[in-house]
Every structure is written in C-alpha cells, then in structure tokens.
Write a structure and sequence with these properties.
Mean pLDDT: 82
Number of helices: 15
Shape: elongated
Number of strands: 18
Number of domains: 4
Strand content: 15-25%
CATH superfamily of the largest domain: Histidine kinase-like ATPase, C-terminal domain
Low-confidence stretches: 449-458
Oligomer: single chain
Length: 511
C-alpha cells in the first residue's frame, strides 16, 4: 500500500462528518467503506457496515430515501443533495448528504461517494435566540422605569440603568466600580453590607425598604428587591431593583397625622358631650319637674289660663330637648364603642304591647290605626330590653309622624325557617324617594333637601332611624328599609337565630 493510499485512508477516517463509499451492483448498493463518523451516525459498527447492502443497515423509509437520491444522481450523472431524515438511531445530527458520482472508463456511474453535511442550522438558531434574549434583557434594563443596580460579589457597582440615574441624580461615572454603600444612608450602610454578602453567597431573593442617598445629599425612601445571578466561571452578581416610595411615605405620614388629629378631636367631642350631658340634663330635669308641678297646680291655682297653656308648651319643649340630647349621647356612645349591651330574656309580645299603648295618645288625634299581628306564643329574645324598646319607639314614632290622617300602621312579628326572629313595621305614609333611602339611615341625614318639601312634623335630629339601626347592629341583627314615595315605608328587623330562645331553652350567658 502506497503512502498516498495510506494518507487517503487516514484522512477518510478522520473526517468530522459521516462518509461512505457505495458500489453500484446489479443486486443493490453495497457499502465498501465507511468512516468513524458514519458509524456514529448510523449507530452501527464499521465492520457491520462494510460489505453490506445499504438496505440492511437502514429501515425501509431511510433506505428508500437514500436510494431515490442515488437514482437521481445516476440519471443526471451529477452531484445531488438530499436532506437527512430524523429517524436515524445514531446520536449524531447532520443537515443532509452530498451524493457524488464516480465514473468508469465508459462514463457510467459505478461508485457513489456519500458525504454528510454539518448541521449548522441548529447552532445558528440557538445563537440567534441567545443574541435576541441578550438584546431583550438589555432593552428591559435600559427602558425600565424602576432603578436597577448590578453589583459584584465584592459590592462594587458593575452596572446601573438610566432610571436610577434620573431618580437619584448621580452621574454614571460617580457610581461604576465604587462600593454600593455610597448610595445608602449612612445609618444603614453596615446593615446593607451584611445583607449584600448574605444575599450573594446564599442566593436568596429578598425584598425590603432602604434609605437611599440622592446626589444632593437628601435621603429618599425606597423599596428594593434583590436576586443573585450566577454566570460562567462561578462569577456572582446581585441584581437589585430600587423603586422610590418617598411620596408614598409622606402620604402615609400625613394620613397618620390626620388620623391622630381625628382621634384627638373625637376624644374632645366625647369629653364635651359627657360634660354637656350633665350641664344640660340637670336644668332640663328641673324645668320638666317644676313645670309638671305648676301644670297640676300642686301648690295652688294659677291665676291666668294662658299661663297654664304656656307651661304646657314649656314642658313639651323641655322634654323634646331632653330627647334630642339623649339621642345625640346614645349615638356618640355607639360610635365610640362605649355602649355595652345589658342582655336578658325579653318578652317580645309584652314589649310591643307596651310600646303600642304608649303611642295611643299620639295616634288618637290623627285617627291613625295601629294593627299588631303577633303570635302570642312567640319565643323570647336574648337582648338588651332598654335598647330594643328604644328601637321600637323610634321606628313606630317615625311611622306615626309620617302617616297620613286615617292611615294604618301594621306590626308583624314571627320566627322564620332559619329560627330568626323577624319584626316588620309598615306604614301608609308619605314614603321616601328611592335615591334618598340611604340618607334616612345616616346620622343627622335629612331626606328632604328642599325647604318647601319639609313637613314640620318631620323636623328633628335625624337620629331616630340611624340609632335604631346601630342598636340592632349591636345585637348582630340587620335593619332594612324599603319605601316607595307616596305609598309608605316598611322597616324590617332580623335578629340572628342564636338570640331566639324557645321554651325551656337556656340563656346564652348561662351556657
């Protein structure tokens, strides 16, 4: 064997791509030589490839694919290219094959040289994707409205984006390659150094607040998020996003100060009302008491009947003023959370009867009729008797106040399927406009905002219904108002089932 042949054989075997020499015979295409890369591609040892017909090495589909390429090459007597099929069992990927003809003395193709084409496509796609990803990340880094700082494992600033420069006023050359602690308020530098070392060594993601220094020396509040990035050669960097929250902190401080002022004003209001309760109630009780003695002529007759009439007005006005003061004080106690329930068994039937009797004198003059549809075997209610009585008085008083002459007021009480005690007070009065119903339930709310529409009977503090609702809420119940202007109003009160006490049932306090 000559040196040229030996050199050719060595080069043939060392080629970095699959290569085979196929001899064309009448009974098929026989492999007479194959290199190491061909062995790797086809997944078959060279000694199993050489001296075998091609169809013995490949499955039917791949054999047919190669043979079709051979036939075109033989027919054209020119090199042709075929693509590689994805079903080869070997672990080497190629893009395709060059099929080169070799001719005999008569110009006929007697051998075919099969040469693999390197699969450069996948590599180029991966490179392109990597380049696109790097470009995308770089774009996000630069256009982000949140400041971003990149520091190395020694705490030196490697990179900073434009947003951080704009927000804190530093020049890029002032920051790059300098210790990041120059950007942090002095009192927090030791802490941030320790955290930086911990974050970058452990690789944890962390979020918190930090005080940043602006270039003019002023301090800004910021929210940061840090994450570790590990690159080649075990290089570590800490990526930190910095969002300025100075304005938010100022707003929080302002709101906190406003709340403190409001709490202070509320305490002052409570103290004022507590003092006023004593200062106003004492003389009012005296006026009411003395006027009653004079009206009854306890110590002798009054000379003028007109004086007696005026005394009645004085007595009525004093009682009205005392009622207003009591309502304001009750609402103040409820709002401040100082009104506590004094709970016990309440006979709802007896309570409703007593309130209806009390209203008898008020409804008599206007010929208003109160109808009570109440089951005499109603269960007890675990509630505050005084507050529940006040709730019923307020609601029924409103119903009487706004009812038309010869009108009807219906009171219904029952226990529903969920064992909840339900009270409904309905009237046929002037009603409330739909968009004004919410005002009737707000403290000091006035349903009518036009002077010409105000009924003199309706004048008051605007606390009757709000007080009733607040007192029902204290019991865990619900007060609902439904009304149609010109037709009347329904007030529904629903108490939770645990407050319904049937016969022989123990009280909640005793359990």
């Amino acid at each position: 064997m000559t040196d040229d042949v030996l050199n050719f054989t060595s080069l043939f075997q060392a080629m970095p791509i699959p290569r085979m020499i196929v001899e064309i015979k009448s009974d098929g295409y026989w492999v007479i030589n194959a290199n190491d890369m061909a062995e790797k591609y086809f997944g078959v040892k060279c000694d199993k490839i050489k001296g075998h017909e091609l169809s013995e090495l490949l499955d039917t589909e791949n054999a047919r694919h190669f043979i079709q390429g051979f036939e075109v090459c033989i027919k054209r007597k020119k090199m042709v290219t075929i693509q590689a099929l994805p079903t080869i069992v070997g672990n080497l990927k190629v893009h395709g094959f060059w099929i080169n003809p070799s001719f005999d003395e008569d110009g006929e193709v007697n051998y075919i040289d099969i040469l693999g084409q390197p699969d450069v496509r996948d590599q180029s796609i991966l490179q392109r994707e990597r380049d696109d990803a790097i470009l995308l990340l770089a774009s996000i880094f630069e256009v982000s409205e949140i400041g971003i700082i990149v520091t190395d494992e020694f705490g030196k600033v490697s990179r900073v984006n434009d947003s951080f420069i704009r927000t804190y006023g530093w020049r890029r050359e002032q920051i790059i390659n300098n210790d990041f602690t120059m950007l942090v308020a002095e009192e927090e530098r030791d802490k941030t150094k320790i955290n930086h070392k911990k974050f970058i060594s452990v690789g944890v993601r962390s979020t918190g607040e930090v005080k940043m220094l602006r270039s003019d020396g002023s301090v800004a509040n910021a929210l940061f998020t840090s994450a570790t990035l590990k690159l080649s050669q075990n290089r570590k960097f800490l990526i930190t996003t910095v969002m300025d929250i100075t304005l938010r902190k100022q707003m929080e401080q302002t709101l906190r100060f406003a709340k403190e002022q409001a709490d202070s004003a509320n305490r002052a209001k409570s103290a004022f009302l507590a003092n006023m309760s004593h200062e106003l109630r004492t003389p009012l009780n005296a006026i009411i008491g003395f006027s009653e003695l004079m009206i009854k002529e306890t110590f002798g007759p009054i000379g003028q009947e007109k004086y007696k009439e005026y005394l009645g007005d004085v007595h009525m006005s004093a009682e009205h003023l005392l009622g207003i003061i009591n309502e304001v004080l009750d609402m103040s106690k409820i709002e401040s959370g100082h009104l506590e329930l004094s709970e016990n068994r309440v006979n709802v039937v007896e309570l409703l009867d007593s309130v209806v009797r009390m209203m008898a004198s008020r409804v008599f003059a206007s010929n208003i009729h109160i109808h009570a549809n109440i089951d005499k075997n109603m269960p007890y209610l675990w509630a505050d008797h005084r507050l529940l009585r006040q709730v019923l008085i307020n609601i029924i008083t409103n119903a009487v106040k706004f009812s038309k002459e010869n009108g009807n007021i219906n009171i219904k009480a029952y226990v529903d399927k969920s064992q909840r005690l339900v009270l409904i007070i309905s009237d046929e009065g002037i009603g409330i406009e739909a968009d004004k119903i919410h005002l009737a339930l707000e403290p000091f709310g006035q349903v009518s905002d036009k002077p010409e529409k105000i009924d003199v009977r309706a004048q008051g503090t605007g606390l009757g219904l709000p007080l009733a609702k607040a007192m029902v809420d204290l019991h865990g119940g619900r007060l609902q108002l439904e009304s149609e202007y010109g037709k009347g109003t329904d007030v529904t009160i629903v108490f939770p089932p645990e407050r319904t006490l049937f016969e022989n049932e123990s009280c909640p306090a005793a359990e």
